[in-house]
């Protein structure tokens, strides 16, 4: 599934291709992707221009004249800009035809992607964006916020980090990497983390996302930001996908396990599971 760095790369790529284009027609070939009445969806979009493309967590936000089109790529969603004379792919499910003869085609092999259309005043008032947590940026993901969020949760730290209401945009690959960098076992209960572990984890999350964005994301399976651009961060992964290979820190073999049903890669020596007893916040804890 494309995570924050991949979606950010797609956003940056699309901006140079479709900003200013006016929608002449919309064709929906697989209605389940559209999270509202399809007729109303297509009717409202005709005549709208793409003013800007933003992002919130893993969601692309197409800012139009009067609406926001909110797109989630899920497992394998992609966007391709094509001229209308180019034959359709069987997995092109939503087609935005522009007045200049080009088309933005949403392609999704698994058909898991979703699209919402919201008025500009309603963008954050309801699903899917209303309950998203902060972005993994220095200004939003503060030590205080993360400490408060983790001390309230007894679940495994990996499961907590994958919760989009805790941090928006983190997914399986980057959580695996961040936990390794912070030397934290993914099954460690969130409310047992020490302050120094919380700070290491916060720094690791910020670092991994920044470097992944700089490298265009991670190309795993069928992620593409465009038919000409793919991620390069897979060349820098420390544990994800490296089962049986040596840890870069201690030399121990990387192992694969399941946490919350997700494939999880760890170094068993660098990431040791501690006791599961919770802790109370210390008076005068770091802020």
Describe the structure.
The chain is 24% helix and 22% strand. The protein is built from 6 helices and 10 strands. The strands form 3 sheets. Strands 1-6-7-5 form a 4-stranded antiparallel β-sheet. Strands 2-3-4-8 form a 4-stranded antiparallel β-sheet, with helices on one face. It has a two-stranded antiparallel ribbon with strand order 9-10. Strand 9 (255-259) and strand 10 form a beta hairpin.
In brief:
With 287 residues, the protein is α+β, with helices and mostly antiparallel strands. 24% of the residues lie in helices and 22% in strands. The strands form three sheets. Strands 1-6-7-5 form a four-stranded antiparallel β-sheet.
**Distance between the first and last residues' Cα:** 34 Å
Overall mean confidence score, pLDDT: 90
Q: Would you list the SSEs in sequence order as H and E?
A: HEHEEEEEEEHHHHEE
Strand content: 15-25%
Task: Please describe the structure with a list of short key phrases separated by commas or semicolons.
single chain, 287 residues, alpha+beta, four-stranded antiparallel β-sheet, 10 strands
Secondary structure layout plus pairing:
Layout: H1 4-18, E1 23-28, H2 38-45, E2 50-56, E3 59-64, E4 67-72, E5 77-83, E6 92-98, E7 102-108, E8 114-119, H3 143-151, H4 157-162, H5 172-181, H6 195-214, E9 255-259, E10 262-266
Antiparallel strand pairs: 1-6, 2-3, 3-4, 4-8, 5-7, 6-7, 9-10
Helix pairs in contact: 1-6, 3-6, 5-6
């Amino acid at each position: 599934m494309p995570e924050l760095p991949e979606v950010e790369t797609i956003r940056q790529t699309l901006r140079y291709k479709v900003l200013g284009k006016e929608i002449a027609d919309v064709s929906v070939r697989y209605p389940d992707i559209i999270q509202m009445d399809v007729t109303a969806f297509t009717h409202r979009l005709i005549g709208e221009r793409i003013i800007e493309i933003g992002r919130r967590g893993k969601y692309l936000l197409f800012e139009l004249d009067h609406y926001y089109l909110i797109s989630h790529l899920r497992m394998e969603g992609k966007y391709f800009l094509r001229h209308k004379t180019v034959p359709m792919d069987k997995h092109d499910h939503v087609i935005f035809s522009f007045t200049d003869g080009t088309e933005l085609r949403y392609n999704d092999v698994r058909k898991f992607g979703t699209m919402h259309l919201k008025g500009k005043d309603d963008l954050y008032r309801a699903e899917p964006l209303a309950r998203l947590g902060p972005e993994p940026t220095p200004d939003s993901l503060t030590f205080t916020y993360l400490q408060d969020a983790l001390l309230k949760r007894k679940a495994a730290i990996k499961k907590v980090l994958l919760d989009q209401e805790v941090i928006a945009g983190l997914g399986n690959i980057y959580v695996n990497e961040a936990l390794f960098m912070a030397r934290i076992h993914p099954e460690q209960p969130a409310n047992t983390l020490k302050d120094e572990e919380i700070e290491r984890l916060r720094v690791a999350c910020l670092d991994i996302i920044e470097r992944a964005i700089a490298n265009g994301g991670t190309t795993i399976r069928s992620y593409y930001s465009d038919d000409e651009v793919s991620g390069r961060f897979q060349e820098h992964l420390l544990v994800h996908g490296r089962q049986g290979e040596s840890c870069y820190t201690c030399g121990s073999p990387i192992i694969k396990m399941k946490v919350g049903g997700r494939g999880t890669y760890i170094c068993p020596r660098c990431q040791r599971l501690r006791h599961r007893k919770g802790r109370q916040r210390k008076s005068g804890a770091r802020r």
